[in-house]
Write a structure and sequence with these properties.
- The chain is of the alpha/beta class.
- It folds into two domains: 195 residues, Rossmann fold (3-Layer(aba) Sandwich); 69 residues, no CATH class.
- Helix content is 28%, strand content 25%.
- The chain has seven helices and 13 strands.
- It has a seven-stranded mixed beta sheet with strand order 3-2-1-4-5-7-8, with helices on both faces. Strands 10-11-12-13 form a four-stranded antiparallel beta sheet, covered by helices on one side.
- α1 runs parallel beside α6 and α5 packs antiparallel against α7.
- The longest helix has 24 residues.
- The radius of gyration is 21 Å and the shape is elongated.
- The C terminus is likely disordered.
Length: 274
């Protein structure tokens, strides 16, 4: 079965590795890939299969190129993992409905972007990874599989995301086994849920002292995903960064931290735990 693979990043890397593994290479071949140049070059370098793949850049939507590749190469199935663009109906229909997406969140509750952050902010006790059929409305297609993880009171956006990686790996293996047998289920989603746009999280990074200790704690943990900017207090046009700590909350009154090694303890102020 010829596959069009769309995506980049850690989750996409994990799923692509499974797709070209010995367990599945006899039944599936990646005929075309839509991704960044860096991701594509990494695939070429690591896997012999990469030499024969039709690569399409994801810098633009490039849907005409995608449809041309599907038709010229006889591609039957689309698998998307953290693809940066919303797929148009013409692309979806080119696969006669055989298009699937791995979404790093529970559906329909958390559609869209920054879902680990919103789950922590909303004080969820459980999180999930899902694979679903792709429909014209974002993250709204019928469910195929779901796997859940616990959200603990100490979880940050980064730690919760890391918890989902092995779940995503196992879920992709189970999905490909179903696809091998042409036994992929369609489980309708219950309810409409919520969609979070790419820019929706930015306002939640800003902490106010009158938020109260519990909300400040959740905003801080939900925004912690180095090297991205953490939660902050805006004081006299200066950003005071808020970092989670086992003993409470730490404030960092210096330049934007790029990685954990840059967080000099001399710039941290210990606040009492909530």
């Amino acid at each position: 079965m010829k596959v069009l693979f769309l995506g980049e990043g850690k989750l996409a890397q994990i799923c692509l590795k499974i797709l070209v593994s010995d367990d599945f290479r006899n039944d599936f071949s990646v005929a075309s890939m839509v991704s960044s140049e860096t991701f594509q070059n990494g695939f070429r370098a690591e896997y012999e299969e990469g030499r024969d793949v039709c690569f399409i850049s994801n810098e633009e939507r490039n849907e005409d190129q995608i449809i041309e590749a599907v038709n010229s190469l006889g591609i039957e199935t689309l698998i998307s993992v953290q693809h940066k663009w919303i797929l148009g109906e013409e692309v979806i229909s080119a696969f006669s409905g055989k298009a699937f997406n791995l979404h790093n969140a529970k559906l329909p509750d958390y559609k869209g972007h920054n879902t680990v952050s919103f789950a922590i902010l909303n004080d969820e006790k459980e999180y999930a990874v899902t694979i679903h059929w792709i429909a014209p409305e974002v993250d709204s297609g019928d469910l195929v599989l779901e796997s859940s993880v616990e959200v603990t009171p100490s979880d940050t956006a980064r730690s919760l995301y890391q918890k989902t990686l092995p779940e995503a790996e196992n879920l992709m293996k189970d999905f490909l086994r179903l696809l091998q047998k042409n036994e992929v289920p369609r489980i309708p989603l219950i309810g409409h849920g919520a969609y979070f746009s790419k820019n929706a999280w930015a306002a939640n990074k800003v902490v106010a002292l009158n938020d109260g200790p519990d909300l400040i704690d959740r905003k801080t943990r939900a925004s912690f995903f180095p090297p991205y900017e953490p939660a902050r207090l805006d004081v006299s046009e200066k950003k005071i960064y808020c970092l989670p700590d086992a003993n409470g909350l730490k404030l960092w009154a210096n330049e934007k931290p790029l990685n954990k090694s840059d967080w000099d303890e001399s710039h941290l102020v210990q606040l009492p735990s909530k």
